[in-house]
Amino acid sequence: MQVLKEEVRSAIMLAAYEEFRQSGYLEASMRRIATAAGMTSGNIYRYFRNKEDLFDAIVGPLYSEYNRYAQEYLQTAEAIATDGWDVEKRTSFFERVQNTLVGLLMASGPSLLLLLCRSEGSKYESIRSELTGFVESLLTKSFTAAKGPAGPLDERERIEIGMLAATMIESVAWIVANYHDSDMLGTLVERVIDVFGCGLEKQMEAHRS
Amino acid sequence: MQVLKEEVRSAIMLAAYEEFRQSGYLEASMRRIATAAGMTSGNIYRYFRNKEDLFDAIVGPLYSEYNRYAQEYLQTAEAIATDGWDVEKRTSFFERVQNTLVGLLMASGPSLLLLLCRSEGSKYESIRSELTGFVESLLTKSFTAAKGPAGPLDERERIEIGMLAATMIESVAWIVANYHDSDMLGTLVERVIDVFGCGLEKQMEAHRS
Amino acid sequence: MQVLKEEVRSAIMLAAYEEFRQSGYLEASMRRIATAAGMTSGNIYRYFRNKEDLFDAIVGPLYSEYNRYAQEYLQTAEAIATDGWDVEKRTSFFERVQNTLVGLLMASGPSLLLLLCRSEGSKYESIRSELTGFVESLLTKSFTAAKGPAGPLDERERIEIGMLAATMIESVAWIVANYHDSDMLGTLVERVIDVFGCGLEKQMEAHRS
Amino acid sequence: MQVLKEEVRSAIMLAAYEEFRQSGYLEASMRRIATAAGMTSGNIYRYFRNKEDLFDAIVGPLYSEYNRYAQEYLQTAEAIATDGWDVEKRTSFFERVQNTLVGLLMASGPSLLLLLCRSEGSKYESIRSELTGFVESLLTKSFTAAKGPAGPLDERERIEIGMLAATMIESVAWIVANYHDSDMLGTLVERVIDVFGCGLEKQMEAHRS
DNA sequence: GATGAATGAGCCTTCATTCAT
DNA sequence: CATGAATGAAGGCTCATTCAT
């Protein structure tokens, strides 16, 4: 049964997606992917150089896009920080973060799940800490500004911010892993941001007084 | 030269803990565990039937304990729910959750890390969703009570509660994976519960009106 | 766009020659040959039954030719030996060997390189020992004649002749593998024959006395 | 059937030796080696890290020894060259080369065969050209000295020396591949050196006049 | 005629597990 | 008790070859 190249390529990527989703990058088996895609393992290598390349094909485009977004938003944040960061700007802060994340989610489709939750052992495995770092840096700027002349953040504040950033990303990862419908995804992420936003405001107040 | 049986058993479990922590259940290597424990891989099998059994030995007791706690708290919650769930009781609600979780953390020691974060591929890999289910059930009760006569929760409310429960557990897992010091652990978990608590209050208000 | 059959055949053989030269028979890759010939690997099998057949096509004609030469020269040598083998004839002996070899080299072109140096794993891999046998037989006749009435060669003489024949072929093979320019090739082979001739003369003298 | 470690190690090396000898480094199959050694392929890896390591174990010691010899003899040659290189020293030259080679052969045993003739694809594959370079350098020194004030060698002389060095090594390789008895090996190598020595003398004379 | 997708056997290697010693 | 040699299945990957199109 001869099939067109693109169809087969898609079939492989589909089977690979499923396998990566179930087993993660390291435990995924090329043989199983092949079987699921209805072919011999050798044939996969006509379409993808190796396991990494196959993972890349699914997840790489999204990663690039993320990189563009991240850089852009960090620069914007930098600019705002330099100008001063008044109440008005601060209130618009979480909308920006929210837009970044929700935008990414909308643009991404199901591959975000692999990137965020199943990439251990691949070259993308640091994505979570990158994302965390990104969010952390935004939060730090916001906090520093809010704190005003009181000076730089103390150790405990930094740890808490780090935790908030990380758990926020964990939460997003969970949502991505459990809801694939684009609308629902957006709603839930917004909700999570709300929750964390609320917690943050409280923390800021506490530290300001 | 002969070592007592229990000492050897401990040595194996110690080495295994470290290996599981670093590599996770699936990627953990029996050979490396044996080497680290100062023996041959074959000897491990005199003390533990297989990899799973070894993981069990480390993580199983905590799992049982968790099960006891969970059941107990659920029953309590049930009782309260039946009696009615007034403001006062509601305000004490998060303290209970908090106590449950922090108590578990204190009672558990480092094996919680394995159970929550390194059990993929083992028979405990569903622990997170179990925990989530537990928290979800508590939240549902609380919400239902708060909503009062307006009747049962709608689909959307249930989904949001599910998400909040799950992401809360994810957050706790992250903390457990990143901070081992018992005090810091407590502080951070309390902080996370604060944040989620704040978000929850807002949500309740929103839905009450 | 359609190419004539013979052109394609040639293109394949050309690409195959290069691949066999670089990688040897066993390590040669049909895929690389196809790519270099500007076609798909499958198409090669319309022109050649398999890898061996392709190697055959390049190297077979030369092998046949060698066989003709060898038989012819052996018969001549036989005839001379029967007639008696005086000094004059003996002095012309190495010229004959030389002419045989250099003739083959000139008549052969680059495929001799494959036949002599890259045929391991193919059905031609015994060519070196065949050639050696041929030269050995010539040398044996010459020696026997030179030794005269002293009778047949002893074990040690036969071994040395065998070795000289073999290393002479090895030398020629090295030259063929390293110099492709026809003139240089001739010069160096003559030079090698000189060297071996010199050694042989000495050996003959030693054994005659 | 339990066997002592060293016995098994030897059995593997023996089987490996045979396999490498028959198929060369690249074509050798670990499975076949294992089968020949009476075990599963996996078990080999208890004794040798991988194919390369196994080849190393057989061939490495000899290679080290060769390196020591080569350096030593090159230094000696250098010293002689500086002092001047009269007839007497020159006549002793080939005795030195001969001693080097024959010494190596005696010290080496059958692994020399693998090193010289079956190492393609391994990290030792350049051994022939190294050896050739070594001999070539000795010959060049000798020639330059013999030529005296006439100055450096011309292109053609250099090519011929290169060829003589290379074909000499080829000859030695052939001998090693075909005779394993230590005495016979010595005799034949001496014989080959004689032959080449004779050819060299003639060449020197030709170029001196 | 030619394509190139597909196969299947083979490669080296790793690893949990078993068992003779 | 403990060893560590051995197994067997699986891993990712390559390649000559076949065959539907």
From TrEMBL, chains A, B, C, D:
PROSITE patterns referenced in this protein's UniProt entry, alphabetically: HTH_TETR_2 (PS50977)
Alphabetized InterPro entries for the sequence: Homeodomain-like_sf (IPR009057), HTH-type_TetR-like_transc_reg (IPR050109), HTH_TetR (IPR001647)
Signal sequence range: none
UniProt keyword list: DNA-binding
DNA-binding region of this protein: 29-48
Domain (HTH tetR-type): residue spans on this chain: 6-66
Keyword tRNA-binding recorded: no
Name of protein: TetR/AcrR family transcriptional regulator
